[in-house]
Design brief:
24% helix, 433 residues, alpha+beta, Immunoglobulin-like, binds 2-acetamido-2-deoxy-beta-D-glucopyranose
Length: 433
């Protein structure tokens, strides 16, 4: 393309042109993108970068370091210094698990180095290529592929159903089940990595459903990398790798200080120790009709207050609330329920006072009666001891030896009929004896 060469080059030789471009590029980032599309053909015709037509793929992909599932991969791009001087170079990198058919586009790296976390038990292939870039892609090399096969051992020996929860700010419980082909003597050990430090979990437990688990006391906010590898005397147990964002698995402490006021406004507070701004949270109110046994769930976003409507105020209700992160990020789990408060109806409020009044009136009446009795000396009559027949009828037992007929004949007529009712005495077995 001779004309273009003439118009673009202004008589520079290509080295001077390169220096000029570099200088310009530091001042106006867009200039090289624009210029290079003219320059490349020139360079090509120049012969120096003629080999650009066959841009070599990267070579020597190596795993530079490995922490649980986190691999640092580096490669040699095999691109000459000349091209590097001239062109914007990117390294597209993709990966594909052995159990999947799709390459997943990862990113375009600026440097021949990439750090990525993989579920290594699945086996993974990583591929990378060289790319010369302008506003459009000028040239791409072929891919170079590196295979990382699954670690030795049967797939069915892997810890299965692995899951974790983060609770009470920074505690973590992870649980898993033994692989179906893992021998009975298999012992699993959990390693976790956060903030560039790998630790071995030490507090193991068996949960109520028979799953194995491990408890960690202090977990930070960064992504958590996990490896559960097992050992057995009879076979190789495959290690399991995963990673997750602790926010997703967080179970928040429940809201506190829930209160329902007379005007049916429900208010609650955020639990201590979290960001106090409820904006990112969703809340769920549970309103239970205690008489009818029906339950209503109400979803509230961003605020810690709600005015209940469509509530029959003549019935007793209980109200409680729970929460989860739903807006800025999302957690999988709701918190536990908060404290409960009750909507008491107006009648039961009156009944309380009525009971109280009744109690007071009864007490007052009792006291008044007491005074009245004292005054009229009726009290003594009331308190008179119950007569003992042995005393009244002393003579009957002592002198007449219990012979009633004989004794009665000698008695003066008795005023109080009940006290000496003959039948009453006859029926008294002690009197007969
Ligand atoms: C182009 O590559 C061939 C072999 O691949 C090499 O012999 C030749 O010297 C290269 N040319 C330049 C200008 O680098
Ligand atoms: C790219 O791959 C194709 C087909 O696999 C091959 O024919 C070609 O020579 C390769 N090019 C380079 C630069 O390796
Ligand atoms: C594993 O987890 C799945 C889904 O969470 C559940 O359906 C299944 O019952 C669990 N299996 C065992 C053995 O716990
Ligand atoms: C929750 O964590 C706090 C400190 O953050 C601790 O004082 C408290 O005992 C923990 N509660 C439970 C139930 O573990
Ligand atoms: C977590 O595990 C510990 C240890 O077994 C247990 O005491 C605690 O109740 C568990 N917490 C939750 C929220 O499951
Ligand atoms: C389990 O993995 C850790 C970390 O990769 C390693 O140090 C340890 O030797 C492994 N243990 C077994 C039994 O494979
Ligand atoms: C309901 O009562 C509470 C306090 O008892 C008060 O703060 C609130 O403003 C009241 N709301 C309405 C709508 O009257």
């Amino acid at each position: 393309m001779p004309e273009r060469k003439g118009t673009v080059c202004f008589g520079f030789d290509s080295n001077e042109w390169a220096v000029f471009l570099l200088k310009i590029s530091t001042m106006f980032p867009l200039v090289p993108c624009f210029a290079i599309s003219f320059v490349l053909p020139i360079v090509l015709s120049d012969g120096r970068l003629a080999n650009l037509t066959e841009l070599h793929p990267p070579a020597d992909i190596t795993i530079a370091s490995r922490h649980l599932g986190e691999l640092t991969v580096t490669w040699n791009d095999s691109i000459s210094q000349d091209i590097k001087k001239w062109c914007v170079i990117r390294y597209p990198i993709e990966f594909k698990y052995y159990d999947s058919d799709d390459w997943q586009e990862d990113s375009r790296r600026l440097y021949p180095k990439h750090v990525e976390v993989f579920e290594l038990h699945r086996g993974v292939s990583i591929r990378v290529k060289n790319m010369l870039l302008d506003k459009t892609i000028i040239k791409e090399s072929n891919w170079t592929i590196m295979d990382i096969p699954p670690p030795p051992g049967d797939r069915e020996t892997l810890a299965s159903n692995f899951s974790c929860i983060i609770y009470n700010h920074s505690s973590m419980n992870c649980t898993w089940r033994k692989g179906s082909k893992a021998p009975t003597d298999t012992e699993y050990v959990m390693y976790y990595r956060q903030d560039k430090i790998t630790r071995r979990c030490i507090h193991y437990f068996m949960d109520a459903n028979g799953a194995q688990g491990c408890h960690v006391d202090h977990i930070g906010n960064e992504n958590i990398l996990i490896c559960v590898n097992g050992s057995s005397n009879s076979t190789i147990v495959q290690p399991y790798y995963t990673q997750f964002d602790p926010f997703e698995c967080e179970i928040y402490n429940p809201p506190v200080n829930l209160e329902v006021s007379q005007n049916l406004t429900v208010k609650w507070d955020m639990p201590a120790g979290y960001n106090n701004d409820p904006y990112c949270f969703a809340f769920e109110l549970k309103v239970t009709d205690l008489d009818g046994d029906s339950t209503k769930l109400l979803r509230i976003d961003h605020v810690t207050e709600y005015v209940l409507v469509n509530i029959n105020p003549t019935k007793r209700h209980s109200v409680k609330v729970r929460m989860k992160l739903a807006h800025c990020d999302e957690t999988k789990f709701w918190s536990d329920w908060s404290n409960e408060d009750f909507i008491e109806n107006l009648h039961s409020f009156n009944a309380y006072w009525m009971l109280l009044m009744l109690a007071i009136i009864t007490a007052m009446t009792g006291l008044l009666l007491l005074f009245a009795f004292r005054r009229c000396k009726v009290l003594e009559t009331v308190c008179e001891p119950i007569p003992d027949p042995q005393k009244k009828f002393k003579a009957l037992f002592e002198e007449y030896n219990g012979d009633f007929q004989n004794w009665i004949n000698c008695q003066i007529p008795i005023s109080k009929a009940d006290e000496c009712h003959p039948i009453a005495i006859e029926e008294n077995p002690q009197a007969e004896a």
